[in-house]
Each structure stands twice: as structure tokens, then as C-alpha cells.
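TICKET #2291
ISSUE: user wants both folds in one file
ATTACHMENT 1:
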Amino acid sequence: MNRLNRDTLIAVILLLLVGFFMYSSFSIKTPVFEKLAPGQMDPGFWPRIILTGLAIMGLIYLFQSIVTPPPPAEKRGGLIGWYRHYKNPIWCFVVFAIFLTIIPILGMLIAGLLFVFALMTMLGPKDKAAFKRHSWTTMGTVGGMWFIFACLLEVQLPKGQYTGLFDEWLLVNVCGIVSTIGEIFADAAPSCSALLASV
């Protein structure tokens, strides 16, 4: 077995943090929540799903760090060399911090669209065709996730201080159309079942 290295240490710390957060997720459900939303899904369910994924990735990271330890640290030319080496992760954290800052202002949907598009543009190619791909991918992924959580699961996503009316309009119109289509199918289901039974 290889000696302890920095990746092994980081993996162990990450797994300990995941364990702590997993333990904490069981205390999210409070008597106040039970009173306001009786019979609703446990508020710790989604955090535990994410933490389970993080735990699996942390275990893979730990295994890799033991089997194939990182090479000895090379000299990177001081602070400038260090920045060049870690430029992408640094800017990912900066963009994520900006995203968290603008959620209360622009809401989850618009802030999410800007966040994903900014990351794809920063990390990927920057030609005209790439911008088009980034735009479509952003709208498909973020819009799809918004639709699933806001309309299908009826999760109350953060609304923006300046975009609250737009967020409400989307909820009423987009989710209203989905609800209407669902009601049509629900009304038609007994008739279809009776028709199939008579054939």
C-alpha cells in the first residue's frame, strides 16, 4: 500500500464532511415543517440523494489516490504559475459565488441560465457556433430542471427581487398548461379503459 498522500487526505476529509452533512440532513424535518406541510416529502430527501452521489465519488477518489498516488509536486513558477495551473477551478468558484449572490435578485431560473451559460463559455470554445450550442444546452438543461421541480414536483424555487412577476407568470402559464393536459388525460383514461375492455 502506498504512503499517505495529499489526495488521500483530501478524500478522507471530503468523506468526513459528507458524513457530517448526511447526519445533519436527518434533523432538517422540524415540528414547524410538519405543521406547515403535513404528509409532504421529507425535506432531507434531496440533500441525501446528492450526498449519496458525493459519497460514491469520494470513495472512488479515495481508491484512486491509494492505487495511483499523484506525482510529486512540481515547481510552477510562484503565484503566477500557481494561478495559471488552477485558473479554471478558481474561476468556477468565482462564477458560482456570483450565481449564489444573484439568486435573490434574479431568481433561480434566470440566475441558473446565466450561471450555466457563463461556465460553458468560460471553459469551452468561444466561436459563434459554440455560443449557439451553449445557449441551447443551457436552455434545455436549466429550463428542463426548472420545469421538473417547479411544475411536476411543485417545489417552491427562489423568486427574484426584480423578476418575481415573470417567475409567477411562468408558473401560472407553463405549469397551468401542464396541469390542464394532465387533467385531460385523467378524464380520458376511464373512457379509454372502458373502450379497450369492450373490444
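ATTACHMENT 2:
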Amino acid sequence: MHLEICVEDASGKILLENILPRIVRDDITWRVHGYRGIGRIPKGLQSTDNAEHRIILDSLPKLIRGCANTPYVTALIIIVDTDSRDCKDFLKELKSVHQEIAPAANVIFRLAIEEMEAWLLGDPEAIKAAYSNVQEGPMKAYKQDSVCGTWEILADAVHPGGSAALIAAGWPAPGVAKCEWAANIPPHMDFGANKSPSFKKLLQALAPFS
């Protein structure tokens, strides 16, 4: 069995590559593809052919068709942030694309609410194990899987100067920090104790391959 997993950015790819070896069985192969942003579902469900574009929702129709036409792919797993979207409406929209293009293909959608840093914030002990001098106030004030500026909360907890310093530094500082968190925190995570409902839904999706 083989899993193709697509995430919307580099930090998501790093995070998944750090947690999947602890979840997926050794007899199952997998590959994670990191994209350059979320984008939007294209009109007429015609994906761009520009390989450099690599925006995940722009590429969604092409990804689903590829899964349907590739016999060795057991499942295509698409993981995106909800940002400010209503999660139920967003998931319904994604599933409608799947049903219209290739309903027989095994395509699984999972949403990180609001951002994938919510999965890291779901395990405060892992954050404290990965970083010294953690500011616990932002983590204690955080409401799990809420739309509140999630990456900024994590930055305020672990980054010198907090989110304000990263925002002031400008691109690519926030992205670099997110990649560091995605590499440093997952090795300490206790998946069973994670408080993030959206992370638990990811674990449920991966359960048949665990």
C-alpha cells in the first residue's frame, strides 16, 4: 500500500515527515508533497499545468485525477489549513470536487483549524520539551482549534520577541520559524494526549494504515 500526502506549505511537509514514521506501519510506503500556498479551487475544475505554480487547491482537480488513474496509490490525503473559513462548508466544498471528478478514488481530506500550528499547541508539554524559557501565558490563554492567530500564539510562547518580532522582520522570517517548530516539537509529542480535535481527526484517517 502507498499513500500520497499533500500539504499546503513547507512547514506542513516537515511536520508530517516528522510524525508519520511514528504512525504509519513499516509495510506501507508514503510520500509527502509540500506546496506553496493554499490558493483556490479553479473554475471548471481545470488545474494549471504550470509546475512552478504548485498551489494546492489550484492543483486539486489534477491531484484527484492522478490518484484515480494511478493503481499503486492506496489513498490521496489532502491536508490544508482552514484559516478563517467555516470548516464544515470548506470540507463540503472539497468533497464535492472529489465526487465530481473521481468519486471512486480514495481521497481523504483533513483540515487543520485554523493553522497546522494548532496541532503543536495541542501538546504544551512537547513545546516545553523542545524549547527552554517558554512563555506559558499565551499557551494557557489559547482556546484549542480556534480562529485566533494560531501561529502568532505559538510564536509568542517560544520565539524571542514573540510574533511581533517575526512580523517586524518580514518574509521569510515567519516561514523559517514555522519550519523550525515543525521540526523541533513533533519528536516530543504524545499523540494520544494531544488536545487538538483536528489532529485527532488526522489520526483517525491514518488509523487503517497504523
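RESOLUTION: both attachments delivered.
EXTRA DETAIL ON ATTACHMENT 2: Residues 11 and 181 are 8 Å apart (CA to CA).
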